[in-house]
Amino acid sequence: MPVYHYRALNAGGMVVRGQLHADTRHALEAYLQAAGLDVLSARRAWVSKYSFRGYQTLKVDVCTFLFHLQRMLDAGIPLLASLALLQSQASPVLSSKILCVRQRVESGDQLSTALHKSIAHMDAVTIALIHAGEQGGLLTSLLLLAARRLQAQENRRRQLLTLLLYPLLTLVLTGMALLVLLIKVVPELALFLRNLQIPAPWYTQGLLGLSGMIVTHGVTIMIVSSVLLLVLGAAYLMFPVCRLWVAHGALKVWILGKLNQKVQLSRFIHALGALYEAGVPLLDALGTSLAVVTNPVLKTGLATARHSIVQGMGLAQAFAGAGCFPPLMREMLHVGEQTGTLASALQHLQALYEQDIQATEARLLALIQPTIMVLLGAMLGWMLMAVFGVIYDNLDRMVL
């Protein structure tokens, strides 16, 4: 849906500015007039769906919005009044979207439909949970479940960023320092050795060669690398075969491949379990839960399993036939299907995956920092030995 930047006068004669999602300019003016604003100017804005602001709105603002909306509805405040209160307290980015939601609810749309049309970054699982709550009379309970799900995802993302921040910062700063040494200091060493006609050992020659390549061909290397990355990126986006090849290779990477698979399946199982427990039919829950899986190989396998279930095959048998899911997942689904406790089996399976993921991530993060330190130390030691070693070995040839 297009986004419009607008300037308008409120009832007190003050000029207010903001942005709002609307199908047309006339729809925008109708929304604002219904909110008591007289439009002065409006222009359509270009907004990337991959923008950082949009991502943050989904992960933080929308989560807070759902929590507050659930509490207000649980306290007995009507939906429209709750939306109006939240609109007045929300950030400028989210306030315009809540206004759009409120206008759509007033025009007869359900809350889930209004959220889907107004907040483009809200994921399909959250929309499906809210829709199931509307259909089953459990709106407040499922709003709370959707908000907690988004909060858990955001907390996990922040935890990983916090743990990775120090190693990555150390790597970047030390790498920049080494690059400066290679560009500025090592060429001076080469000139010094040539002037004194001092023979350089092999490790010094290697350092001088690396420095010379960076100084002489650094710009060319950057241009060629950028063009190659653009070509590979375009091929990845344009050709599904390339995406499948990359996704298949990503699942084969040592440790990280298994971790990626478990993370993807944990998200899928969590979404499937939440939807199924909320009363969404299994086939609909499977189709909606596919939206949280980003790996094309796993997504294709899940879609194949869903098609097999449509054809009449059992749940566990369908996932076994897809051929890309671990035995634990197949066995847990089989037990849940046979005993009629599929929702409980999905909860236990998600908890097992989550525990395994946390343990694997802890081991990886414990290895990252020592590995970075060892590599940087080896690089720095090589440079020190190459620079000072040759000087100390030839002190008798230097003229003081």
Give the helices and strands, then pairings.
Layout: E1 3-9, E2 15-21, H1 25-34, E3 38-45, H2 52-74, H3 79-89, H4 92-106, H5 111-118, H6 124-136, H7 139-196, H8 202-238, H9 240-252, H10 256-277, H11 282-289, H12 296-310, H13 315-322, H14 327-339, H15 342-393
Antiparallel strand pairs: 1-2, 1-3
Helix pairs in contact: 2-3, 2-7, 3-4, 4-5, 5-6, 6-7, 7-8, 7-15, 8-9, 8-15, 9-10, 10-11, 10-15, 12-13, 13-14, 14-15
Provide an overview of this structure:
By secondary structure, the protein is mostly helical. The protein has 3 domains: 43 residues; 101 residues, Receptor-associated Protein, CATH 1.20.81.30; 243 residues, Up-down Bundle (Receptor-associated Protein), CATH 1.20.81.30. It has 15 helices and 3 strands. It has a 3-stranded antiparallel β-sheet with strand order 2-1-3. β1 and β2 form a beta hairpin. The longest helix is centred in the middle third of the chain and has 58 residues. The protein is extended. The termini are far apart.
